[in-house]
Structures are given as C-alpha cells and as structure tokens.
C-alpha cells in the first residue's frame, strides 16, 4: 500500500524518518500494524484527506513547535558546531527519554518537565513518545536533577510510565554530533539489557563490552562459566538478585523472601558447581556480565 500511495503523494514519509522540526508540516495516518505515515500538507487537498480518512485512520497527535532555543541546538548537532562557540563555564547534558505510547500528549509532557525544572527546557523530539531533553547548567558544577525523583513526580501526576538514559555532563560543543549519536546508541543498548527506569552512561559500560563480542563467543563464555547451572533458572535468579542488591545478604534475603541461611546455602551451592564465589567483587562482576550476555 505504501508504494501505491507514494506514486500519488511523492512526499510520503514514515514517521521514524522525519526530522523533528518538520513533523508538523505533514498530515499523519495509521496503516496496518500501527505503522504511521505522513504526507506533506501542501501536497494534499481537503478532498484527498477526506478520501484517505475513509480507509486510513488519521493520526492527530502533534509535536510542540520547536522553539528558537531548540532550533539552535538542532543546528549545533547537525553541523557539529565548533568548540569555540560554547560560552566559557557553561555545561549541559543530553537525557534521552521514552514515554509509554499513547498515554500522554507531547505538549503535556513538555509542560510537566518545564514545571519540574521551573524553566524552559529544550526538547528534541524523535517521535511523540521519544526524544532528548537538553539539561543546561549555568556553571560546570551546577545543580543536576534526580531523574528517579522526576519519574516519581510524572507517574504520580500523569500516570505514565517513562524511562530515562542520562548522558555525561559536557562542557564544550566539540564533537557534539558524536556525543549526541553516542547517547542514542547508549539508550538503545540500555533498553536491550536493562528494565530499570533510569540508567546513566556509566551503567551501560559493561553492556558495551558484551556488544563487542559476537554471539558465538558469548555463548562459549556463558557455557564455560555457568557449567551445569546454566539451566537452573531459580539459582541464577538468586545470583543475579544478590548482585543487584550490592552483594548484601540481608537485602537479598528480604528481596527473595528467603531466610539468610537458605541464601547462604545457595551461594555455596553455586560456588561448588561453578567455582565462582559471588561474594567476591571480581567474581560478581564476571558473573554479572555473563548473565547479561544471554
């Protein structure tokens, strides 16, 4: 169907391919399997729109019009602005976000974010539920926000699930395009390996090592490390929870509704079967990478 429509409307574009500042120049329609396409408003007549709406469902959710500040940031990123343009002493960071689909209007989300920050906040939208917040600081050591607290506020006020991937604090525009692309890649990796609502660029470093290994090598390492426990999901879950609880016996036992002695027994059992003492940090780190590399 898309190919037929493209013959009639050459401007047809998929939503995932659109630049944020051009989003509102299109009329949007939902195809099969929730695919969304756009047709330039200046290429479609009222009669065309009425006809298309009889067999395609119009998609009316619009993105906020880019502000002057947001357009400036987009230009910096697209042109890879030189380091000399950055005012001395200023700092910023990119924060990727993903909102639960079809649960909140982008305008409402932007208003909620600006209410929390108590200032205008540049947001570069990739779609109506994904984008990048640009958090600016007046000084290099300016106050940074807790995104765990922001999520709590948004969920209590808007009843919407959201995830954040928080980039590093940057002090120049040197290689800004690379920094931006690295953030997007990091967010993609974070979503593949973790279910946490907030992750930082530091959190994904172990996953980068996993990504660099091919599947055959990962499989070999996993089998050689886990040995006969590889299919013991209950035991592996215990080990993973112990690591997630920072190797704390009491906290892990509470999380698993288990007696401390029972947990100690499982840790010993895993050591006997694999030679890995997960109570030691370097063993725990090795096991963490192996468990995440499945």
Range of helix content = 40-55%
The fold-level CATH name of the largest domain is: Alpha-Beta Plaits
List unreliable stretches of 5+ residues. Answer: none
What characterizes the major β-sheet? 5 strands, mixed
Q: In whole angstroms, how far apart are the ends?
A: 38 Å
Average per-residue pLDDT, rounded, comes to 85
- Identify the overall geometry: elongated
Number of beta-strand segments? 9
Q: What's the SSE pattern?
A: HEEEHEHEHEEHEHEHHHHHH
The proportion of strand residues reads 15-25%
What's a concise summary of this model?
The protein has 294 residues and is an alpha+beta fold. The chain is 46% helix and 15% strand.
Keyphrases for this structure?
15% strand, 3 domains, Alpha-Beta Plaits, 12 helices, Arc Repressor Mutant, subunit A, alpha+beta, 294 residues, single chain
What does this structure look like?
With 294 residues, the protein is α+β, with helices and mostly antiparallel strands. The protein contains twelve helices and nine strands. It has helices at 2-8, 46-55, 68-79, 106-117, 147-158, 176-193, 205-211, 215-226, 233-244, 249-255, 260-274, 281-292, and strands at 13-14, 26-30, 36-40, 57-59, 91-99, 123-127, 130-137, 162-166, 198-200. The strands form two sheets. Strands 6-7-5-8-9 form a five-stranded mixed beta sheet, sandwiched between helices. The chain has a four-stranded antiparallel beta sheet with strand order 1-3-2-4. The mean pLDDT is 85.
